[in-house]
Amino acid sequence: MTVIDWDVAVNTGVRLVRPGPQVDLADARQAVAQLRDLSTVAAGHVRDFTGMNPLEPTGPAVIVDRPGWIRANVDGFRAVIEPVLDQMGTDRLGSGAAAALTSAVGSRITGVQLGAVLAYLAGRVLGQYELFLPPDPDGTLPTGRLTLVAPNIVNTERELDVDPHDFRLWVCLHEETHRMQFTATPWLRGYVQELMTELLLSTEMDAGDLITRLRAAGEAVADAVRGGEGNLITAIQTPEQTEIMDRVTAVMSLAEGHGDYVMDAVGPGVVPSVERIRARFQKRRETSNPLDRLLRQLLGMDMKMRQYEEGAAFVREVVARVGMAEFNKVWTSRETLPTLAEIRDPSAWVNRVVRPAAITE
Fold first, then answer.
1. What is the pLDDT of residue 232?
2. Tell me, what is one Gene Ontology molecular-function annotation carried by this entry (predicted)?
3. What are phi and psi of 132, to 5 degrees?
4. Is the same domain home to 243 and 178?
């Protein structure tokens, strides 16, 4: 049973997305080439600073425009949702003519809503590490993909009035850190997917219930797959799902905070204007018009900002106390990941994972 019309989602998003900034062809080509090069440069800096090493081939980032970002995210959304629907089966989703009609109508509505939300986000996202790609029949392609949204990066550096080369490298440092997290820690991708599947399967629902919830939470699920929370909590969470969402929030806070920590720690040595960039970028995060603030709240983007802050504070304190090598124990297994309580109390994680012998009597 189809609950989201993926073609409708793509077509709606591409139709509604705003065009990028005006850039002449030569400048556009230069930006694309430079972003590819800087992603490779940033990967070296991240590897040297963190002491982590990718266990699969990476290569330069894939550079996309706004419609390309929408298509990529619909593909990722589909890669996560469809296997869950298969697990649900017709017994839970319902069958017969009524269910088929509900699916046909509801899937188009949900596709339009998902596309509209992705069109909004497509004008704001600078880059991302795509965790979930369509299956590769040959098994030869990387399991994830780093994408950078060139028009958004160019637009942001213009708005902030910062050095383009420095800003592009700064963005690449953050996104390459995410790629390192998942390519150096192969079990982490499966763990995140397991959490998402567990969350989506944790509530009994029929076809009508599922469509209603996906209408409310479609954009939030898409954001959660990429590392955020969105409205997923309020849209589909039940009391039984609280523990699952705490684990999702903890791992995403770690990933986002680690990315922010690395980009700012590496920055002073390789990005001369990093202080200016960080100050202006942070101010941009905090100021927006009323409509934009409302949309950010509805889409869970403010919650994502808290993830950056709490996660970065966790990484800073742990590294300051025990050093980078000991901090990297966080990537050993799912058991060494911090809980949500430990994200907010880093000493508890240090005592549990790094210095368990220190806990006596």
1. 44
2. hydrolase activity
3. -120, 115
4. no
| pLDDT tens-digit map of 18-31 | 988 888 999 999 99
The angle subtended at Cα 181 by Cα 270 and Cα 39, nearest 5°, is 40
Contact predicate 61/147, CB 8 Å: yes
pLDDT at 222: 47
DSSP 15: H
Give per-residue burial for 31-42: e unless 16+ CB within 10 Å, then b.
beebbbebbebb
Give mean pLDDT, residues 54-81: 89
CA distance 99 to 93: 8
User: Half-sphere exposure (CA, 13 Å, Cβ side) for 221?
Assistant: 31
Residues 149 and 245 in one domain: no
Number of domains in the chain: 2
- Distance of alpha carbon 272 from alpha carbon 260, whole angstroms: 17
pLDDT for 107 equals 80
Instruction: Examine residue 205 and state whether it is found in any structural domain, yes or no.
Output: no
Contacts of 274 (CB under 8 A, 6+ apart): 166, 170, 264, 267, 268
For the domain that residue 158 is a member of, what is the CATH number?
A: 1.20.150.30
Within the chain, residue ranges assigned H as helices are 6-16, 25-50, 66-93, 96-122, 150-160, 164-183, 186-201, 207-226, 232-236, 242-270, 274-286, 290-298, 301-322, 324-327, 340-343, 346-349
pTM (2 decimals)? 0.80
In a domain, 170, yes or no: yes
Lookup result for tokens 């106390």: 321
- Measured distance between the N- and C-terminal CA atoms of the chain, rounded to whole angstroms: 56
pLDDT per position as a tens digit, 170-205: 999 999 999 999 999 989 988 988 888 887 777 554
What is the structure's pLDDT at 10? 95
Instruction: Supply the range of the domain harboring residue 142.
Output: 7-184
- Around Cβ 344, how many Cβ atoms within 10 Å? 14
For residue 1, is it within any domain? Answer: no
Does residue 178 share a domain with residue 114?
yes
Hey, what amino acid is at 339? T
**Burial class (CB within 10 angstroms; exposed 0-12, middle 13-18, buried 19+) of 305:** middle
Shared domain check, 170 and 47: yes
In a domain, 256, yes or no: yes
Q: Output the CA–CA distances (angstroms, integers) from residue 147 to 55, 64, 283, 350, in the order listed.
A: 19, 7, 25, 34
